[in-house]
Write a structure and sequence with these properties.
The complex is a heterotrimer. Chain A is α+β, with helices and mostly antiparallel strands. Chain A contains 15 helices and 4 strands. Chain B is of the alpha/beta class. Among the domains of chain B are: 63 residues, no CATH class; 71 residues, no CATH class. Chain B is globular. Classes of the chains: A alpha+beta, B alpha/beta, C mainly alpha. Chain A: This is ABC transporter permease.
Chain lengths: 390, 336, 330
């Protein structure tokens, strides 16, 4: 018997070898892919996480370019349309259809019961919706001056309120877009502060070990057990009433960040402790590398993916805290707009009944928190395919 | 000698995310009363899932082939058709523990960490023997004593993590035997133990088996162990039994190239001076089962054009032995 | 077990000492001490002009001029030795009087919430793990995500809205009108219980969402353990098997996170209290903070945190009792 290919079936064999070669190439690509490429491949397969990432990216972009995306400013009032319901662009009405979407104009009538002046849609007037319409002059990104806005009514004299207006006639859609920027940025800043603190505190504890570690563990425990909202209430009282909204914004971010680090610090510490005596770390130490360098260059990279997961899932904590505090009036104050500040106007059962559109910012809170959670889960699965998401 | 268990055409498939895989195909073997069948093969060859199927312990994602027959003669003489029993039936509960006992590779993980070993032995006893709590406890202490655990009266109230590895495995043997099974399935019971302890536990199991007259299926990946404990042997490769027969004969004169390879890889006194020759290549994964003879990707004697195309049938080269290899013809004579 | 308990006890006391120090420092942060505000409150509108000397006199009078460390020991000593939290300046009475039975109300809400959380999440989490991949399991996962994402104050509002529609308007608050200021009596307790379920449900919501996932994950892990297969292999009937082996271990993470749950409940309580009109609690917290009455604020923060530390201690002990491996490792 021989191992020579059987005569008469050459095509079969070349096809087989070609397939084998293709497999080999694929495997080669797979084995040589970096850790991050692998994580990205696995993450991409996580459909829910990809959807969540797109949602978050959209929110972030809308927030960054709020001046351009929002048709009006946060304080622009439309006194002719107070507590007005959302206006949904339509293509057809009783008078026929059009290619361009439009909304009906309003006329003022008296409420038959309360005799209050109310505005009701007038089906005979059409206002057309368009893109890149002229409006208030704004500075996008603080640099580019423009009077164009992403969407609005073609006639700059008239206003459209996709998500209705509040009790002062301010556009809920525009305000929500601006609020998105505030709330997300508090999350980002807060998480960054927490992260830096966690890195330093957890890093020192995990690298030094021994007495220092013990002492730090004690402090961590204390910070961890103090309930954040009551604590924040105490510190909020310490904030001078005359502080500007910007000062309050930074103070709040700082406080949330200052107390958000224990979980991550513990993670960093325990990971560091577990690899402290690995050969490559010892080798670096013996070679005389400085501790900061050893931690940064040799130790952290081995669990960066876990840190990223922890960072992502700590966003909801920041966002929910900000929202809750602002909601009860302890956090940001008007004229700042954040999701929590906007929801202040929806504090009563009456609001649910009469102006439910004021709750739209709540949808953003839920969506953002969900998105961060789902992305965190997706990243965790991608970074560590063998762990069961908890 | 009377038949205790006969398994025919056992085929097991799993539904997985990547599709259905069939890690066990057409496996046939038998165990007689009071005798030990050694089941040997590299890890992943399907030994564990095959024996789990006998006790219907496979997860819900598993399904048995249509031709699968597993006939077991119970202590009362009745023949149970295991493949037909429902997972929650009274028969299967009586079979589990009462008729067949099972010991696993990891004694630590076999015990729940939050109950004492006594608790778990007494549970087994009371499920299968009409005893009061107190009687069961006394019986359990006897049992621990019997498996060689000193100071059994105190050890019974300890947790698994408080015992040494060897003691734990002895305790697990006590759990399995206390319900009085007629067939003991030992799934690599000594693999996780230190070498000296391995020998002790092996001795213990052999003695207990003789004393109690049990049948036994002893799973291992080590042919050397087979020589010590088994009367018969079945060699598994990638979900098929490639060779079976009396343990002594198979080890002395292996027929199948895979068995020959396993033996060549085995350190022994007369091979100490020579280099061990491991079987080349890696065991293919069960979701990429080779066509034809499953061993052809690693076989030095493969017949190109035949071995990789057609699955060899089981033939009888000598009375009492069987082999699945194209090197032997219908009558079991070597072809080449 | 005794040694373990003592060790944990010492750990608890150390943590409490550090916590008290931290709370005291927080109380010290607000600019301008209470003497300024006291003077302002006392003399504003009376036409009397207040001099720095007057304020200083008040300061000395209240003992606020002493060094910080002394005031700390004075404060914590009073609390530990006499259960005396000092004067509530803004309320012009003792802190104990101001807080008083609010401690019991808070405990009531806390335990109602905890019990509700565990009663719901443990069985459901176990069920979801056993029926893994089923429609029910899938639905529960979606619910859990939503439960975690929905801010509690919104939930409170929505619940209040429906409670109002279904049970009448007298659902907010902790008592109905006739009992609000009545002395304690059986009917008053009953009245409170009738109001307690709403805050308990709101506060339990996110904890339930979280703990269902925890129980489900642990239970799934435990279901695949060899010890479960081993028990099945000795013929343990399926129902008993699930309860005795995996379910028994699936509650361990719940026990170990009791302190965490208490922390979250205390964090959410002030917010939910404001929405649900639990004037007894929320308003007290808010007023203390807004009036800069750091004695009341500090006392509340201290009591809440001590409660959390104590619950952590309890959970450690309970866990060690539930899981014999822990004592060995300690
Ligand atoms: N629950 C399962 N789901 C899918 N495949 C399984 C499962 N359990 C075992 N297998 C497959 O069965 C093969 C044989 O496993 P096993 O019987 O444990 O091998 P052995 O005991 O011989 O080492 C494994 O390679 C694995 O692919
Ligand atoms: S059938 Fe062919 S490939 Fe398989 S073992 Fe026999 S000779 Fe080797
Ligand atoms: Mg196995």
């Amino acid at each position: 018997m021989t191992d020579l290919p059987e005569p008469g079936k050459p095509t079969h064999i070349t096809a087989e070898t070609r397939q084998a070669e293709k497999d080999r190439q694929r495997r080669l690509k797979f084995y040589s892919a970096s850790q991050w490429t692998l994580i990205w491949w696995r993450f991409r397969r996580h459909r829910a996480a990809m959807v969540a990432a797109v949602i978050l990216a959209t929110m972030a972009l809308a927030g960054i370019f709020a001046e351009f995306v929002a048709p009006y400013g946060t304080t622009t009032r439309n006194t002719g349309y107070i507590e007005g319901p959302p206006q949904v662009p339509q293509f057809c009405d009783d008078n026929g259809c059009s290619i361009r979407p439009f909304v009906h104009g309003n006329k003022t009538e008296r409420d038959p019961i309360t005799l209050r002046a109310i505005s009701v849609p007038d089906p005979d007037i059409r206002h057309y919706v368009s893109l890149f319409v002229p409006g208030e002059t704004v500075k996008v990104l603080g640099i580019f001056e423009t009077d164009r806005h992403l969407i609005g009514l073609a006639d700059p004299e008239l206003k459209i309120h996709f998500w209705g207006t509040d009790d002062l006639g301010r556009d809920v859609f525009s305000r929500t877009i601006y609020a998105t920027r505030t709330s997300l940025s508090i999350g980002v800043l807060g998480v960054m502060i927490s992260f830096v603190l966690a890195l330093i505190i957890g890093g020192v504890a995990g690298y030094a070990g021994g007495f220092l570690d013990n002492a730090i563990q004690r402090v961590t425990e204390v910070v961890r057990v103090i309930p954040i909202i009551p604590l924040y209430m105490g510190l909020a009282a310490a904030m001078p009433k005359e502080w500007s909204t910007t000062q309050v914004y930074f103070a709040m971010t700082l406080i949330l960040g200052l107390f958000g680090w224990p979980t991550l610090a513990r993670r960093i510490r325990s990971q560091l402790l577990s690899i402290r005596n690995e050969d490559y770390v010892v080798a670096a130490r013996l070679a005389g590398a400085r501790p900061g360098r050893i931690i940064g260059q040799h130790m952290l990279p081995s669990f960066t993916s876990f840190i990223i997961v922890d960072l992502v899932i700590s966003f909801p904590y920041m966002i929910l805290s900000e929202t809750a505090l602002s909601f009860v009036g302890l956090g940001l104050r008007p004229p700042s707009v954040s999701w929590g500040v906007l929801l202040q106007q929806a504090q009563s059962v009456r609001a649910i009944e009469q102006t439910p559109w004021l709750f739209i910012p709540a949808g953003f809170v839920v969506l953002a928190v969900l998105a961060f959670t789902v992305i965190g889960d997706g990243l965790r699965d991608a970074a560590d395919p063998y762990s069961e998401a908890k | 000698m009377s038949r205790l268990l006969s398994v025919e055409n056992l085929t097991i498939s799993f539904r997985t995310d990547e599709g259905t895989i069939t890690p066990v195909q057409d496996v046939t073997f038998a165990v007689d009363k009071g005798r030990t069948l050694g089941l040997v093969g590299e890890s992943g060859s399907g030994k564990s899932v095959s024996t789990k199927a006998l006790m219907r312990l496979l997860p819900r994602t598993a399904s048995l082939g249509a031709d699968t027959k597993m006939h077991y003669t119970a202590k009362d003489g009745q023949v149970m058709r295991i493949e037909t029993l429902s997972d929650r039936s009274r028969e299967i509960r009586a079979l589990r523990g009462g008729e067949m006992g099972m010991i696993f590779q990891e004694p630590m993980a076999s015990f729940s960490p939050v109950y004492t070993i006594g608790n778990q032995i007494i549970e087994a006893i009371r499920l299968h023997r009409p005893m009061s709590k107190r009687e069961a406890r006394a019986f359990a202490i006897d049992m621990l004593d019997k498996v060689g655990i000193s100071n059994a009266g105190a050890r019974i109230d300890q947790y698994a993590h408080e015992l040494s590895g060897g003691m734990r495995q002895r305790a697990m043997i006590a759990v399995a035997l206390s319900a009085g099974p007629a067939l003991l399935i030992a799934d690599e019971p000594t693999t996780a133990l230190d070498v000296t302890i391995q020998a002790q536990v092996l001795d213990l199991m052999r003695d207990l088996q003789r004393e109690l007259g049990m049948g036994m299926i002893f799973i291992t990946h080590d042919l050397g162990v087979i020589a010590q404990v088994a009367d018969d042997v079945a060699v598994m490769y990638l979900g098929s039994i490639v060779e079976r027969g009396p343990a002594r004969d198979v080890i002395r004169a292996p027929k199948h190239p895979y068995t020959q390879g396993l033996l060549a890889a085995l350190p022994s006194l007369d091979t100490l001076s020579k280099r061990l020759t491991p079987i080349p290549g890696e065991i293919p994964s069960p979701n990429a089962r080779p066509s034809g003879c499953p061993f052809h990707t690693r076989c030095a004697q493969k017949i190109a054009g035949l071995c990789d195309r057609k699955i060899p049938r089981e033939v009888v080269p000598e009375p009492g032995r069987a082999v699945r290899c194209w090197l032997y013809d219908e009558n079991g004579r070597a072809v080449a | 077990m005794l040694r373990f308990t003592v060790e944990r006890l010492i750990g608890m006391v150390v943590t409490m000492a550090l916590v008290s120090l931290m709370v005291f420092i927080i109380m010290e942060i607000p600019p301008g001490d209470y003497a300024d505000r006291y003077a302002f409150r006392k003399y504003s509108g009376t036409g009397i002009s207040v001099t720095a000397a007057d304020v200083q006199a008040i300061r000395v009078d209240l003992g606020l001029d002493r060094p910080m460390l002394i005031r700390y020991f004075d404060w914590i000593g009073g609390i530990v030795l006499r259960g005396d939290f000092g004067q509530a300046f803004a309320f012009e009475t003792s802190v104990n009087k101001v807080i008083g039975d609010k401690v019991w109300l808070t405990s009531g809400i806390l335990f109602a919430t905890l019990i509700l959380t565990y009663l719901i999440s443990i069985p459901i989490g176990i069920y979801a793990a056993v029926r893994r991949g089923s429609a029910v399991d899938y639905g529960l996962t979606v619910f859990s995500y939503l439960g975690l994402a929905l801010p509690n104050f919104l939930l409170a509002l929505v619940m209040l809205y429906f409670a109002n529609r279904w049970f009448g308007s007298d659902i907010g608050g902790l008592f109905s009108a006739p009992y609000r200021d009545a002395p304690w009596s059986l009917p008053r307790v009953w009245d409170m219980l009738k109001h307690l379920w709403l805050p308990a449900v709101v506060l339990a919501w996110s904890a339930v969402a979280y703990q269902i996932q925890t129980v489900r994950a642990t239970m799934s892990d435990e279901l695949n353990k060899l010890s479960v297969t081993a028990a099945r292999a000795r013929g343990v009937p399926e129902g008993r098997l699930l309860l005795k082996y995996p379910a028994r271990l699936a509650i361990n993470p719940i026990v170990s996170t009791i302190g965490f749950d208490v922390n979250r409940i205390f964090s959410e309580l002030p917010i939910v209290a404001v929405v649900l009109g639990l004037t007894e609690l929320g308003q007290l917290l808010l007023r203390a903070y807004l009036d800069l009455d750091m004695n009341v604020a500090g006392a509340i923060l201290l009591i809440l945190t001590f409660a959390i530390v104590f619950m952590n201690f309890l959970s450690d002990i309970l866990l060690a009792w539930l899981d014999p491996r822990i004592k060995l490792g300690a």
